[in-house]
Amino acid sequence: MANSVEETSVPAPRKRGPKVDVELTRQRKSDIVQEAARLFDQIGYHGVNMEMIAEAAGVRKPTLYHYIKAKDQILFEIHETIVDRLHAVTQERIHAGAPALTVLKGAVTEIFRLIHDHPGFVRAFFEHFREMNSENRAKLRERRAGYERDLIAVVRQGVEKGELAPVEPRIALLTVLGAANWAYQWYRPSRDGDPEAMAEQCWAVLGEGLRVR
User: Fold this and answer.
1) Quick one: pLDDT band at residue 25, thresholds 50, 70, 90?
2) What's the pTM value of the predicted model, to 2 decimals?
3) What's residue 16's pLDDT?
4) In this predicted model, what pLDDT tens digit does every residue of 111-136 receive, in sequence order?
5) Do 140 and 132 form a contact (C-beta atoms < 8 A)?
6) Higher-pLDDT residue of 213, 36
7) Does the domain spanning 72-210 belong to CATH 3.90.550.10?
8) SS3 for the chain, per residue?
9) Which CATH number fits domain 18-69: 1.10.10.60, 3.80.10.10, 3.30.565.10, 1.20.1250.20?
């Protein structure tokens, strides 16, 4: 009788499919945008060119153009990322039925987190909107407007329910967001501490004006 040999199965190499390719493309594009934002923060948007971005991202310039066609496309990716993140966090709190002050405080806290985690993104977001083409600016204006509409509705409902002082919703919201947004000019984590602590301190001032007395 022949000796039996135990067979060992070797997994076949995984094939790359459309889903894998899409995920790899998304990740590579994200890495490029991250490196570009870092350069924008350090050097300034107008001082950075595509060759510098390619070098920072560790790709050749022709490869870079496979993912990013122009520098202002990176600005669009940055703006889209920030608006979508702010809006998503706000909608989560709204859908969870959070009180108006909690939703607004959450928006302020998220802004500080973005400044802390992605300073290059935030600087490009606030300083270089006009460098994008008109089509992309129009898209982003609508997305920003959707975010602001949701928060204005939160303030309005908070006033109607007696959760907030009787304020004009749009002016109240723009005052809160304006103060929080301006923090990108002065907030330095190494000096001022973690984003949650700073948001707490700022909210102690901003939120007091909205609190019912």
Assistant:
1) confident
2) 0.83
3) 53
4) 999 999 999 999 999 999 999 999 99
5) yes
6) 36
7) no
8) CCCCCCCCCCCCCCCCCHHHHHHHHHHHHHHHHHHHHHHHHHHCHHHCCHHHHHHHHCCCHHHHHHHCCCHHHHHHHHHHHHHHHHHHHHHHHHHCCCCHHHHHHHHHHHHHHHHHHCHHHHHHHHHCHHHCCHHHHHHHHHHHHHHHHHHHHHHHHHHHCCCECCCCHHHHHHHHHHHHHHHHHCCCHHHHCCHHHHHHHHHHHHHHHHECC
9) 1.10.10.60
Q: Could you count the other beta carbons within 10 Å of the beta carbon of residue 19?
A: 8
Residue 211 has pLDDT above 80, yes or no: yes
